Structures are given as structure tokens and as C-alpha cells.
Amino acid sequence: MIWDAKHESMPREELRRLQGERLKAIARKVYDRVPFYKSKFNALGVKPEDINGIDDIAKLPFTSKDDMRDVFPYGLLACDLKDIVEIHTSSGTTGKPVVDAYTQGDIDLWGEVMARTLSMGGVTAEDIVQNAYGYGLFTGGLGAHYGIRRIGATCIPISGGNTKRQLDMMRDFGSTALTCTPSYSLYLAEAGKEEGIDFSKLPLRVGFFGAEPWSESMRADIQAKLHIKAYDIFGLTEIIGPGVAAECECQDLLHVFEDHFYPEIINPDTGKPLPDGEKGELVFTTLTKEGTPVIRYRTRDITYLTREPCPCGRTAVRMHRILGRTDDMLIIRGVNIFPSQVEQVLIKMDGVEPHYQLLVERQGTLDCLEVLVEMTEGLFSDELKRLEQKEREIEDKLREALLVHSKVKLVEPKSIPRSEGKAKRIIDKRSI
Ligand code: DLL
Predict the structure, then answer these.
(1) Is the pLDDT assigned to residue 95 strictly greater than 80?
(2) Which residue of 80, 154, 259, 349 sits 20 to 30 Å from the alpha carbon of 132, by its own alpha carbon?
(3) Backbone angles phi, psi at 289, to 5 degrees
(4) Centre of ligand 1 from the C-alpha of residue 323, in Å
(5) What is the pLDDT of residues 347-361, one digit of tens each?
(6) DSSP 193-255
């Protein structure tokens, strides 16, 4: 079902006109109200009056994650703080988190775009949706919540974790739809099987999975094990949270809600826009957000776009599922991790060298992180008990810094390959 046929199936020329008007208005607004943007525009010699249509977007400056951190916490606000009704942030394990501050209008918009997302998978007021995304600062839980409420379906706001309870609730309340990360859905399937649950006998029929990369083979697995249709949903805190793009019933590429979030693909090295079908870095401009509008945000996610018509009748541009990232950020169980964080921990510890590798594997359905750390000659000649103690000590420190558990293995001095160029810090064995 198309939630908002007027906007989702708008003839493309009309859509472009609408986008042009909205871009003009947002460019004017951020120039007048956000000193950060005014100086960025001025540095490029561009004025709001230079924006007269959507194609003029290429004249505007990019915004990076670092820019956002530099103006933490309120530097992107385009309205009075008193008009902000809710704040969300990214997990922020490296430096300051990025902030999304919502007005009531933004929360209403969030409900709308999430209602579109859930409607794509056939959710209606008749459904019982088990929302197992984390509630809190993370955008997953509340974003899905607003969409479920907007549709008028029944929400079970169970949040993430507590697998036994999830399964009990699913059975007892007869949940018909599930929202969580794809890896967690597989974990639920496994745990349910161990408890003797036959998912084909439950009313559950559809799931909306995102917040981390997953693949077609994982989709097949989820669909077979949970006896549901599994949809990919995409979003990021900087733009609104979930509700930026989602798969329709065709389950083939994600429609971007481009009347609100305008996507571009650029060459990550040159910043030059790339044509449809070419892979590059995904960039978003929010066309209607009130609290913290964002101009040409560089997501570092890699994908491509297509404007080929979709059989569902929606006219919005589609993006391929995320193919990778321009940086080396790892997402382990929903938490963003950078190798540099590991380095910062190791540098402060004795007995080890800052030579390390991050080994990521998918064991069963969960991502596991093993950190190989080179020890000093001194520690190497020590007794085994001491080495084990050291491994536990590093594990504790890493857990504090990364917010996820990793397994540390000390390896012999000089055993980690050296490189003349960029060091290969990550060995990602997840085949997704
Ligand atoms: O993960 C928002 C979200 C919540 C999306 C629930 C979908 C469902 P952040 O924590 O800011 O926001 O992380 C955003 O996660 O730039 C991508 O790298 C990755 N990501 C999000 N959805 C997908 C997806 C939320 N469907 C970052 N496939 C993004 C692959 C995804 N990667």
C-alpha cells in the first residue's frame, strides 16, 4: 500500500519542481539562521539567491561528520532551542556524537516517512508491531515507534535485547511485524528454534531490518527461518534516523524519500557528482527539516542510484543496498568502531606495541571482533599466566572505549605484517 500516493508517486517533473522550491527555501534559511552555513556559503562565494532549482544543489558546500562535531552540540540549529522537542545522537564512540535536534514538525515528518516505510511492507492499523530496535538516544527505536503510531498499528515497544522475553511476547501477543537489526532477527530465529517455536505457526509475517549492512543471502536466511518477508530500511542520525529510504513490495532497491531527503552520488576523492548507475559516496540534503537542516552531508556510505521506473508505481529514485563505506568504520552489533580507537587504547598500555589487527567474523548470527595485539619482547618472555592477565586487561580497556566486547589475542613480536602504504588494520571475514 502506498501511504502518501501524492508525494510517493508524484510525476518526476513535478517532484523536481517541488525539490527546487524546497532547496531554495532551505538554502535561504540556513544562510540566515546558521552562522556555520553562512561562512561555508561565503567561502565558496555562493548566495541563497543563486539557488533557483534542484540542479543548483551542486553549487552548495558539503558538510562532513567532522564539521558537525566542530559545532557540537547546537551549532547546526536553525530554530530557537525552545522549539526543539527531542534530541537524538549517534553512538559517538569516537569524539563527540553527532546531534539531530527535532522540532515537533520534524517528529511529525519522521512519523510520516516511517509510516511510508512500514506501509511498503503492508503494515496497516490491523497490525501488531514488535519494535525491537533500541529505544533511547539511538534513532531506531523511537523512529520506528512514531511510524507505527502514525499508521495506527499496535506498538509493542519492547526495545532491543532480552531474547527470551522477545519470543514470549511474540507468541503471547501475536506480533505480526518485527522491527530490529537483521543480525538480531537471525538470533531470534535461532533462539526460537531452540525453544521449539515453529515460526510458520505464528502470525508474524513481515520484518523491517536496517542500521547495519546485510545481504541478499542473509535476507533469504531470515525469510526462511522466520517465515516472513524481510525488507531493508535505511537511514542515519544526521538526516533523521530510519525513514530516509526503504524497499517497496518488490524488494528490489530502496526508494529514497527524496521529496524530503535529496540524494546525490559523488566521487569520494574529487567531490564531483556521478551519474545514475555509478557507484560512489552517498550525499544527502534535507529539504524540509526544521531543527537541524543539513546541506550535502557526506555519509561515507557507498551505493548507486537509479531512476528506472519501479513496478510498484512509486516514482522516487532508488538506491542499491549499501555496498560499503569510504572510511574504515566497522559496525559491530550496531556500534560504530574505528581502528584508531583501538590504537589509542594500546598506546597507553605497557607490554604491547601499537601493532594490531581487527578480525571480524560472523559466528552464527552475531558479529565477533577479535583484536590481535603484538606484545613486546619483554612480555613475550614472561610466563603464560601473565600473558593471559594482560589479554583480560586489554579486553576491559577496549570494552570501555568501544562499548562492545572484543576478544584479545596477544601475538609474537613482529608477527603482524608491516606495510609501506596504509596498514591493513581490518580483516573482515563476514561474507555479506
Ligand atoms: O542506524 C538509523 C537506522 C535505524 C536505520 C534503524 C535503519 C534502521 P546511525 O546509528 O546514525 O543511524 O547509523 C547510520 O548505519 O550511515 C550506514 O552506514 C548504516 N546503515 C543504516 N541502515 C543501513 C542499512 C541508524 N539498511 C549508518 N544497510 C549509515 C546498511 C546501514 N547500512
Answers:
(1) no
(2) 259
(3) -70, 140
(4) 12
(5) 889 999 878 899 999
(6) HHTT--GGGSS--EEEEESS---HHHHHHHHHHHTSEEEEEEEETTTTEEEEEEE-TT-SSEE
Residue-averaged pLDDT of the chain: 93
**For ligand 1, atom 29: residue with the closest CA:** 236
Q: What residues line ligand 1, using a CB cutoff of 6 Å?
A: 90, 133, 139-140, 210-213, 232-237, 241-242, 299, 301, 321-322
Beta-strand relationship, 128-131 and 177-180: parallel
Q: Of 150, 73, 74, 65, whose CA–CA distance to 109 is shortest?
A: 150
Q: 324: CA distance to ligand 1 center in Å?
A: 12
**Amino acid 94: pLDDT:** 58
Nearest by Cα to 339 from 325, 350, 320:
325
Q: Which of 211, 400, 427 is nearest to 339 (CA)?
A: 427
Architecture of domain 332-428: 2-Layer Sandwich (3.30)
Which residue's alpha carbon is at the smallest distance from atom 21 of ligand 1?
A: 211
Can you tell me the mean pLDDT for 116-120? 98
Is pLDDT above 60 for 38?
A: yes
What are 129's strand-pairing partners?
Answer: 155, 177
Domain(s) labelled CATH 3.40.50.12780 in the chain stretch across: 5-327
- Where does 5-327 sit in CATH, by number? 3.40.50.12780
Res. 419: pLDDT tops 90: no
Atom from ligand 1 closest to the CA of residue 322? 30
Q: Are 120 and 310 within 8 A, CB to CB?
A: no
CA gap 162, 155 in Å, rounded: 17
pLDDT at 422 over 80: no
Mean pLDDT of 399-417: 92
* pTM of this structure: 0.84
Q: What is the pLDDT of residue 92?
A: 61
